[in-house]
Structures
1.
Amino acid sequence: MLKKFDKKDEESGGGSNPFQHLEKSAVLQEARVFNETPINPRKCAHILTKILYLINQGEHLGTTEATEAFFAMTKLFQSNDPTLRRMCYLTIKEMSCIAEDVIIVTSSLTKDMTGKEDNYRGPAVRALCQITDSTMLQAIERYMKQAIVDKVPSVSSSALVSSLHLLKCSFDVVKRWVNEAQEAASSDNIMVQYHALGLLYHVRKNDRLAVSKMISKFTRHGLKSPFAYCMIIRVASKQLEEEDGSRDSPLFDFIESCLRNKHEMVVYEAASAIVNLPGCGAKELAPAVSVLQLFCSSPKAALRYAAVRTLNKVAMKHPSAVTACNLDLENLVTDSNRSIATLAITTLLKTGSESSIDRLMKQISSFMSEISDEFKVVVVQAISALCQKYPRKHTILMNFLFTMLREEGGFEYKRAIVDCIISIIEENSESKETGLSHLCEFIEDCEFTVLATRILHLLGQEGPKTNNPSKYIRFIYNRVVLEHEEVRAGAVSALAKFGAQNEEMLPSILVLLKRCVMDDDNEVRDRATFYLNVLEQKQKALNAGYILNGLTVSIPGLERALQQYTLEPSEKPFDLKSVPLATTPVVEQRTESTPITAVKQPEKVAATRQEIFQEQLAAVPEFHGLGPLFKSSPEPVALTESETEYVIRCTKHTFTDHMVFQFDCTNTLNDQTLENITVQMEPTESYEVLCYVPARSLPYNQPGTCYTLVALPKEDPTAVACTFSCMMKFTVKDCDPTTGETDDEGYEDEYVLEDLEVTVADHIQKVMKLNFEAAWDEVGDEFEKEETFTLSTIKTLEEAVGNIVKFLGMHPCERSDKVPDNKNTHTLLLAGVFRGGHDILVRSRLLLLDTVTMQVTARSSEELPVDVILASVG
Amino acid sequence: MGLLDKLSCLLGLKKKEVHVLCLGLDNSGKTTIINKLKPSNAQAQDIVPTIGFSIEKFKSSSLSFTVFDMSGQGRYRNLWEHYYKEGQAIIFVIDSSDRLRMVVAKEELDTLLNHPDIKHRRIPILFFANKMDLRDAVTSVKVSQLLCLENIKDKPWHICASDAIKGEGLQEGVDWLQEKTIQSNSGCEDMKR
Ligand SMILES: Nc1nc2c(ncn2[C@@H]2O[C@H](COP(=O)(O)OP(=O)(O)OP(=O)(O)O)[C@@H](O)[C@H]2O)c(=O)[nH]1
Ligand SMILES: [Mg+2]
């Protein structure tokens, strides 16, 4: 009867939901019927349904009222009506966390689970496990063990799955049931085998060796259940991934052998696992792709869908591996299932030739309106990939994107489009103007704040450099008039950027900003006032520093420095140079292959990492008075080979006049404890070792840290690049591996480590300058130096650019790290801050003949950074 | 009670149903007693301490009993009261060999008798002085003294010595309970009159 209601409900769109107007208090009142005898099973089941409905609608039941209803429900156990009993089990599960004393039904449930009625037994097991906490578990352990090996599949499955849930809070008890689970794993029933395997895996999953053994055991004997196969495939591929996926592993052989399994499900799972293994090459992919190809012509839509979806994924990284399926994919383009068709087309867009693009785009636009946002995003991703591959096609692709932008769609979809358009604009300067004007049109009617502010930021950055900047002002100012405060603030910043770069427009920008000073919102007013004052000075340097290129300091660092300043006020004005820099540039750099929706945000993490170091170092008395931490090397360098006695990794910390080397040490010998560990360092340049801060003790496998403090070279301050030879010194005390008892007597020992390099990059922090030219002018040519070098070993411009960026550790600006095709000259623009807080900018002109010739021009507000750069390049 | 039910019990086709609460301290033998009263093919083989309660059914010559066999462990005793309202009769089981906890049993009994859902009802109470087979068991007379049963004035009560394992003394108790329940209840009698 309930079923019928549901169905009708679906058909008529909710109009006839019999539970629609339920009132909690009325339903709970009705539940008193449960106390009456004799019991009317139909009526009671209906009331229970109502209670469950309410709970599932998110209705809050107070503890008292819930408990009252629960106890009334317990009386229904005297009825033997099967439907009513099943409703009781459901109610028990739903109310187990809302009502008190739910353990009252324990004996009733154990009775049902061991009783004669098979229909009751499975559900009773599940309900019982739901109400049992770790303290009560012992009491039912015996029943659970019996149920796991019960010959009725539903009972065994229920017990196994419930055990899996119990594992979360009562691992140690459930662990004792593996023998029973093992027995269940050899069951002939496919579900029981699957569930048993699941439990076994989860009990052992923290023990790699045990998992390996389990996999090899089950793969040797073979399994009945396709579900179990699928699971083992997943476990195996996870294991492979952690092993760094060597392809000759028996695990891989197993997965590959599953491609020949008789169940489609297993075949698909294996193919999907292979495709998703990181670092899979064409050879490994081929068999997986060919089974997917077969699925493409399956009569089952689900299989076709799975196949084309997976191929689509493969095509992102290995388009050539999928070309073999092009014919099958072409057949799917007209599939009546639009999801399949979309995926087929977007896959073809990645694998097909440039000539097929127009045809495919036309095809897809014919049903774009019929597919869901999720698939539209897939289309956008495909277009974005195409733009990178065939820059010449950008006009047709852009037009397609603009059409999509104008249509209805959710945030993710619109964001994907905007991201894609922006990346096209950045790659192709010819498309900039059209792109910007379409985006302008979009923000005229854009409900997504994030997108609007993003576009405003882009307009401020790119608009002033176009031929006719004034045409964007109207769109931007409209935002100030029409939108809410976040967008208004973004618009004000964009306006200021036009004023800062374009003298003709400045007077009218000033007028507009003056109007914004009256805004209702604080932030908008503050920004307008600030920009107005800066612009009125009419100084290029100010514009560059405060409008065009924003703050590069770390925000938490600034907050702390300011707080410190207010606590200890001084005569000197606050010095922004004393604030640590943000460790990662503010603007994210997108790499080619990542899909546009996967936006990563590493900034916050990086900031906290440096924060942590700063705090740790500040706690060491020897390091007091070093000033603020300028930079910590992004990744520790290993000074030992892997799998040696001791594992030593070094992180370099740079201060204004000093460097601290932090050595994180681990002792992998279980029969030794090390004490008083230091790393002695011998520099090649005139660095001076000031002191060693030893690690007190290094017991087996417990990491410890020691430090070495050095002063930077004073006589020749440009000689910052240096090699240190390193030697670890310590006292060894032997100890008993089993008891951990340590000898009192020890002996001195030494251990030679690899050399440690300090390079110019350790003295420079990356900084993003959104407008390099303005920054270049701002710094001025007082300390400019220029030199020309020949890079004799380098054969291409890309290679040269990559090497320079890496070597100097500076930030490439205005996408100048991208070398356009078929050109033999290129200019690389780099920005950074030198230790001590001085901006350093480098312009490097490259010319490719047979080898690469490089002219380096460096500017800074001080002489030293410029000298350091030139000395290090030469 | 629906008309059909009344008819069928009038014609003796269906026995009248009675709700019984089975109370008493843990380990006193409640579950063992109830189990013994069930038809031999429905009896459980091994008996474990009850957690919460369990519902059991057995029949006497003219009644059908639905027993709420409650758990006697300390932390569950306060849950008994949830089931008082519907109880039409009470079986209270005492371990007659457990002298030490006789006071605890008395305390629980007094709390029961003073509960608002029980206090003013003429609800029959059957006491089983159980485990009479054990060597240090006291007599049922002694048990009734220790529990001050003579003070119960407003409810019919009866005490039987019993050995639940062999089943001795149980039938006597159930017969008494059947008689009292029929007396103190309307139901079928109303119809007969
Ligand atoms: N010797 C003897 N042992 C008995 C008798 N009745 C019960 N027992 C034993 O006493 C123990 C407890 O019996 P149960 O029936 O579980 O007691 P209970 O009152 O239900 O206990 P809870 O469920 O914990 O409240 C069991 O080991 C029985 O075998 C009896 O008359 N004589
Ligand atoms: Mg019991």
Note: The interface with chain B takes residues 35, 37-38, 71, 74-75, 77-78, 101, 103-108, 110-111, 136, 139 of chain A (CB under 8 Å).
2.
Amino acid sequence: MITVSRRRFLKITGFGLGAAAAVSASEPLAKSAEYINAKTGKGKGIEKIPTTCDICFWKCGAIAYLKDGELWKIEGNPEDPLSNGRLCPRGTGGIGAHFDKDRLKSPLIRKNERGEDQWVAVTWDEALSYIAEKMNKIKAKYGPESVALFSHGIGGNFLKHTLKAYGSPNVAAPSFAQCRGPRDVGFELTFGEPVGSPERTDIENADCLVLIGSHLGENMHNTQVQEFSRFIENKGTLIVVDPRFSVAAGKAKYYLPIKPGTDTALILAWMNVIVSMGLYDKEYVEKYGFGFEQFSQLISLNTPEWAYIQTGIDPEIIRATAIEMAKNKPRTLVHPGRHTTWYGNDAQRSRAIALLNALLGSWGRKGGFFFPASLDIPNYPYPEYPHGERGKVDNPGKKYPFASETITTGIREATITGEPYPIKGWLVYATNLIQALPDREETIKAIQNLDLMVVVDVVPSEIAGWADVVLPEDTYLERFDDLSITPFKKPFISLRQPVISSPGDTKPNWWIARELAIKLGLGHYYPWTNIEEYFKKRLGAAGYSYDELKKKGILKGEETPIFFEDGIEPVFYTPSGKIEFYSPQLQAAGFSPVPEFEKPKENPPGYLRLIYGRSPVHTFSRTQSNHLLSDLYEENEVWVNTSVAMKYGYKSGDKIRLANTYGVKSEPVKVKVTERIRPDCVFLVHGFGQTSKMLKSTYKKGASDSLLLKNCSTDPLMGGTGLNNNFVTFEEA
Amino acid sequence: MSRLGMAIDTRKCVGCMDCVVACKTENNLPEGFDRDWITTEVSGSFPNLTMQIRTERCNHCSDTPCVSCCPTGASHIHDFGGVVLVDHDLCIGCKACVASCPYDARYIHPDGYADKCTFCIHRVENGEDPACVSVCPTYCMHFGDLDDPNSEVSKLVASRKSSVQHPAAGTKPNIFYLE
Ligand code: SF4
């Protein structure tokens, strides 16, 4: 079975000269030096401008190359500790965002009903006045808390500031309840601190790495992939647990093809082996652990034989892998994952992963988890925000007692029910809620209850189609954003700055947020007029030079210890001040103090579990209209195991629809017949099957996994949505 | 004489296509065409599988059917490092070279000439690595002189198990895949 990525190449060369000639009319995707020289007749003039990538949220330091004033290419900034001078494929193709033919060009106000995609182009003044007027009405009638902001990435920082100044605490990102939330809560309950982003994992120094569903190499968070490669170079032992034979699985010493939803059983059995054979880090557990006795008793029945029944993994393999982990301790890293909202009981699974790491003594140790260092740059001295009577709307009565951030779906629910108080305005910054949230019709129902719906984005995303006002933002290549102060192995700060001007009437978010604040009568919250003034004030207060940052793109601080063995003080911010093997706070709240296995839902007859993941060349649904990236992967395919495909008579390339148990059907999608997946599930790359009519280049290409996600169970600890809990069958396209 | 080539570590390669997109921007390739690509080879049946992922391109062979078959001399071997190049002005787009290459490394550019990987000769002559090599986030690609026994590529090929693509075609390819 051989697959070649050269799709377009083969298709076009196959047609011969006639078809090829038709292509020649198209402009090149990116303008190279030769091209520009030939076109402009100008001499050589290369300008390099350091900036920070924004194709995902890793925030790699980059250097943009201009040739005679035209954007040519972008590379990693060698000074940057995240990219080490090398961007991931999405970052390398990032310049395609500037050339995107579908991008928004001017502010828009809707003409007809919401969602009909009929627009009038307006001026910035008209658009912002309209928004301010509506926001003031909402404030007068319902109170300022009734406007919520959904935002992803540092780009949204200034809108957050404006919304807080306006008086609302309701700011949420799907990165919590639809992504890394369960993991961060599970680790916080155990070690007193979340894993954070970038993950505090020291992959490169691990001797044994365990990936549970985490598909590094397809998921391209740059530094992790670079470290993963060094780990392979160092001949570390790799253990991969995944229902799908991922790229990482292809490099593993042990591949465990687990039954979806049973990971906790496997992790409990691993811990059972390590404890019962006395293989754990005794000194570490004794010194830092709390409740180990109760813990070991509670897991004593979770033997590999018991886990085999649940997971389908041979007990001897469970034992062998547990021994392998213990042999390499403390340099065994059981990776906490990132996107962990799978089955609706994910915080407890993440806690089990945290506990396994605790047994191996890897938290705070080299080859395990480090304590991130970051530069201390004070916030801008703004006036205090107003404090309303009403708290956040998303989690009334602390229904989800361990939610440590705002729950997007909680805001959505309040918008529908009006409880605990009405939400009447949504500001949506750079997050396509149509694909990011499950139960799409709930999102649309909530939007129908709004008096104001604003979307700020670079492209006309699907959520923009539901807005009253769409505000076009500069791409990251055309704008300044807030300072990026990333906690990592070395303390540093990086700057995103414009490298080229926008071809349309677009604006940077800081300008949008500031102008909106002025229109709302909140101008005193923006004592600066230009963002560079703001940078100078903040950096100056910490003794750094803005001019130097602008020139280099990166400023580094003194390296400090990041591991216990290098002298960092072991502190655990849990109630006991120790690593909580047994958690009294969970028990007090009515949850299992030690993770327990819950059986997943079984497949209904004739249905397969829908799982999803990443392509290395796309970030969610944000990048599909970037021609450099869509040229590499234009539409997703549904992965179907060979034996299943044979039963249905499908071959690779056949078009089908997926239908879930509620009768929701996907757009037509190609079948990828493969041995690389269990026969009881199917896999899609997330972010495709978009239905924004304005996003012409990607309209209805492939299938949307999120369209098929309905009635997802919710994590009782923290409100995360279980996104791998839907089952699909095949229908004719 | 030098013989430029690559040693590519397939254990490290994740097939992310960064090399493909870097080539596109560096060399201004038209939409729909690539000079390098990823091949994934899977064998076995689930779950007992093995998989090799390779980044592929022109092998800059030492025995070149694409040069011998060219009627105009457009396809030629460059003095510097034996790199196989196409002179766009001499090329008449007859596609003989496209057909002769066992690696399917060539295509006809929309402007009518045969095109393929140049090992980024414009960078290499300035002492830089090809764009694909220097972008790779897994550091799986190594570039250098295979005739120099002390070069990194020579040492890697000498010390590690490796293979070339289609050895039976007799082209003496200069890209080695480390296993
Ligand atoms: S990981 Fe890739 S997309 Fe994300 S910031 Fe880094 S280079 Fe950009």
Note: Residues A 53, 55-56, 58-60, 83, 87-88, 90-91, 220-222 surround iron/sulfur cluster (CB under 6 Å).
3.
Amino acid sequence: MTVATDIPATIRPSSETLLTAGQGKPRNMGQLVRWLLLFIGGIIMIMPIAYMISTSLKWPHEVYNVNLIPEEPTIENYTYVLEDGRFYWWFVNSIIIATITTICNLFFDSLVGYTLCKFRFPGRQIVFIAILSTLMIPTEMLVIPWYLMSQSFGWLDSYWGIMFPGLMTAFGTFLMKQFFESVPDEFIEAARIDGLNELQIWWTVAMPLVKPALAALAIFVFLGNWTAFLWPLIVTNSTEMYTIPVGLSGFGDEADVAWELIMTGAAISTIPTLVVFLIFQRFIIRGVVMAGLKG
Amino acid sequence: MANLAVRNLMKSYGQTEVLHGINLDVADGEFVVLVGPSGCGKSTTLRMIAGLEEITAGEVMIGDRVVNNLEPKERDIAMVFQNYAIYPHMSVKKNIAFGLRTSKMSKPEKEARIQEVAEILDMQLLLDRKPNALSGGQRQRVAIGRAMVRDPAVFLFDEPLSNLDAQLRTQMRLEIKKLHQRVGNTIIFVTHDQVEAMTMADRIVIMKDGHIQQVGTPAEVYHQPTNAFVAQFIGAPSMNMLPGTLSGDGVQLQGGRSFKTNQTRETSLEVLVGVRPDDLTLEAGQSILSGKVTVREPLGPETLIYVETASGEIIAKASGRAPPEVGEAVELSADLSNLHIFDADSGNVLR
Ligand SMILES: Nc1ncnc2c1ncn2[C@@H]1O[C@H](COP(=O)(O)OP(=O)(O)O)[C@@H](O)[C@H]1O
Ligand SMILES: [Mg+2]
């Protein structure tokens, strides 16, 4: 096992925990109970995914059997979904929307979060509270104003229409503000003396120091948009503009929901989320901020 | 390089005034140390010179320019912080080069300059390392390198050695002093450690509660302190303060001795008689105090003795080879010219 050297010692697994983790037998009752609970938790987490994959490998007539192993496994569903032109479009739509939204969130949330964190200006607290208070308004309440807004601006059934409510989020701003608190003012002042302007300081000094937060935010926003259902359903009309969740929900015909196809699409659509997670999670475990300060 | 002047500098945070009119002249190439207890306004003064803190009132001049309204980068200064503030995501070389980002030098010129600085600081072999692979002393050297690389008119240091262990601190102290002798830039150095101040400074500025107490060379502030605060702040162990009364040209110490001084007052005056442990010995001389030894601290060449007297516990110096026993009664003497007499009310030295 390799341990990144810049992880603070406190969260780096000690040789002791590594050893105990390697031992096969529980040491006492307490540990046994803990393992059991974790095991049950693990099963609960993995079941939906197992069923998704299992169902995607079944023929339609077998879908309502609860058996985990398909009687006659088939990849027919995969060929069908991948050859169906619609799925291809939904996939592309989802990728474009989730990617652009993620990039915008990383940019705007951190810019605003940084400003709120590191600059003292009149009304700063009020702006911050105003941003936070929007967290308390549920999406369900917002979709109607959003819809009316999109309608009057002519954004219905377009990428822009799907994306605009999520390009900046209060949660992301809050998260980034909190993380910028951990960037010492001395870094910023040193850069100021070295002659950088405030935008350069934000980009070249502060941003690299909050990479773990950016990675977490990226994963969060990407997943949130990848799985978003309600708003894309409302704002889109034409099949070509659907995102994956909206499109998949309509698979099948009026009489019957084609679960095996929905599950196939869902299984395929987990791949990008896995990729995003694998790309960004390595930043999360690297806490780099403190390394430049006193040691 | 340039001289620096601070004129009637004041700072308030809201209603609280923390600096009450600082006046200071620093000559070109001078090494000035601001020293004082924590919270006395040293950092605030330095940060106002750097342009990191708004100036409430007064003027800062670098060279012959008033820089009050200039950005930090336009003031031709560089600053080294207590926590180093070197960027963890950049290599040592990048960190040093960072100081040149906005300079107009050509690439090869920059490269040469970085190598030159690395050589002065003896860091050539560390250039490709990341800060987390450096020791505390090396990190601080990188921070100094980043400041040096631009060859600023004035270097500002804010307690740069506080995070280092004692041995490294002594070593870096020497290195910074040598560096100053070599490059000759004006330096303003902030510390709360009077030893650092005494050993490094051309001139020391002693501050307390937002006021300057005294400005002078290390010898001046040690031998001619202007008030009781400076007298006790500079020098370790601290100067003994013996309460007494001055009338005519004689001092009557509380609980005992009286002796003649070089001061004369018509009316009697409450005073503090200051005498450094170094000047208070068991050898023959004008007897000042007597008492019993309570504790001995052998330092090798000499032994500090704590003596319980009528004026409280007093520290004095005894021989390292044959110090008095604990419990022994001793007679402490001093040369009268080494006594400092302060007004008990104002704390100012009597002249
Ligand atoms: N941002 C601030 N807001 C209010 N008071 C401050 C602020 N910064 C410093 N002070 C006060 O100013 C005084 C001087 O602080 P400082 O210059 O940091 O002292 P030091 O001599 O220890 O460097 C202290 O009493 C401190 O409490
Ligand atoms: Mg300070």
Note: Chain A has two domains: 26-74, 85-294.
4.
Amino acid sequence: MTATETATENAETARELTYVGAFNEGIKQLMREDEDIFVAGEDVGIQGGVFGSFSGLADEFGERRAVDTPIAEQAIVGLGIGAAVAGLRPVVDLMFMDFIMVAMDQIANQAAKLKYMFGGKAELPLTITTNGGAGLSAAAQHSQSLEAFLCHVPGLKVVMPSSPHDLKGLLVACVRDNNPTILVKNKAMLGVTGPVPEELYEIPLGVGAKVREGTDVTIVAYSRMVSESMKAAERLADEGINCEIIDPRTVQPLDTDIIVESAKKTNRVVVVHEAVRFGGLGAEIAAQVQEEAFDYLDAPVARVAAPFSPIPFSPGLEGHYVPNAKRIAAGIRETLGRPAPGA
Amino acid sequence: MSILEPSVEVLKDLHHRMLRIRLFEEAAGKLFEGNKMPGFLHLYVGQEAVASGVCVAMREDDQVSSTHRGHGHLVAKGGNLNQMMAELMGKADGYCNGKGGSMHICDLDLNMLGANGIVGGGAPIAVGAGFANKYRGNDTVSVVFFGDGSTNIGAFHEAAAMASALKLPVLFVCENNEYGEYTPRHKVMAITDVVDRAAGYGMPGVIVDGMDAIAVHEAALEGLARARAGEGPSFIEAKTYRYYNHHGVQTLGMKYRTDEEVEEWKKKDCIEGFEKRVTEAGLISADELAAVRAEVQAEVDAAVEFGENSPYPDPSTLLTDVYTEMV
Ligand SMILES: Cc1ncc(C[n+]2csc(CCOP(=O)(O)OP(=O)(O)O)c2C)c(N)n1
Ligand SMILES: [Mg+2]
């Protein structure tokens, strides 16, 4: 298989790697392949990143290509923009997704619009990597899922991988893409393992995946919510409910086709995300499904998402905040008009 | 300066505040190790002289804006250890009812405007408090504590520019512990003394030994007096060191700093050094220091018990406090 072909999970070279390990392997292979790729961000050099994402890069490629920056998110993204316009292929890291807001001018006013404002004359092969998601008692400023902010800005591509396999393949696609891309890892998944082919492979941006085949309802989920949805689907299978799960993998551009096709088959859709429900991706997906498959729907498109509040610190509250398999299953039963077991 | 300058009362106060921070933090670290403290824990141990020196010099109505390493600032401002410990454990009786945790701990009644999870986030807020003080025409001063690493971020520079342009009563206190997370300061800053940055904003600045509470106290008195007199902001750089890792309780065996360096700094320990000086000078007896330590330890032990006994917040509180209810 060639380096750019999409690998399958049973590829001969697949080994079990962690989510963060898959990222780390991917970035190293990319850097070996292309001298113009460098990484920059807080603690990414000697420390190898606070989550180990960039581990070993400074040793292998030197600090010229694994750059420890000052704590200066605006300038970190700006460094990437300028270097990209000047012909390099930067990967810049914002430690937590919450910190994109510190850099939002560079991301949304600069990176996203440069090509368009310049009449198409600029190219911006920039990748921003970051870590989102709740569940670790990291509280209101270190747990957010802010993809809706980013998806709303024309010019950005936003990627939310749900497995080690997808993370590596999507990282490759992001770095090779000549547009600004934002790759959001999920912090609570860093240690999750799965099969990852050894060679460099690419999962195209904007192409979703059917991760579970089913007939009764379509769950649309991305990032960590895919594994929670899988758990919910297994529970529901015991109740005779057969769920299909679609993982769009990139939320901008969004693979509407794969979602609509599934909706036409199952006639029911439940969208699941960690971000707050109001104004989240679920609203966009629900709108697109009703625009394209209205006549096929047997129930309103439902959303299982976080309630409208900042993310609480206490495990006693956060456990009720972040969607989980139980709440997803409840949402699906409701959409199907099925009673809870034992009810 | 001479050790005889501060009154014995002030010396006792400095000592008491430093010990309250140290023993509180050590207890918090133990709970963290025992998995009783969720989330991130950024301990202040090693830097106690800075918060204590500044807060003893402050008035009660003066405000504090703090950082992710904020427990020491709240303790030094007079924070209630029970409510602090409960908050760090995510319990209902905590300062923020379990909603904030370590990085968002605050006590508005003590004019402690909060720790902060965003590096640099506290500086503009302190400037706003300083603005309110000037607007009201009172002589209250707001103090912002911040790390060396945070002076690389835009928010710090915008806050410094604003405070000096509007001549606001703000005291900038930089705790230079030579690291931002796992990166040494010299790798990400082309100057050695952070205080050099103050000059660019027309602010007077001084360097003090951040392991010496008396020196910090003296510098803070000057900065506060200047702000109270309407002469605008000033800047203190306190050279200090954190004993524990950026987050959590590991001390030695780290890739980004040597064990020897840690041991060198520990020789300058702010509490040990202070106790030695005041006993040798005959100002406070060793017995009295020991009694204070026992008393503070009892207070901390009680706080741990209080935290452990406090319930987790009721899930019904999840969606309260998002907005202020209008009546
Ligand atoms: C905007 C932002 N960027 C990065 C971080 C992650 N972070 C938390 S503390 C820290 C280091 C801060 O260093 P310094 O200001 O020197 O304070 P210290 O930890 O040494 O007390 C970093 C990078 C953050 N919380 N906010
Ligand atoms: Mg520091």
Note: Chain B has a mean pLDDT of 97.
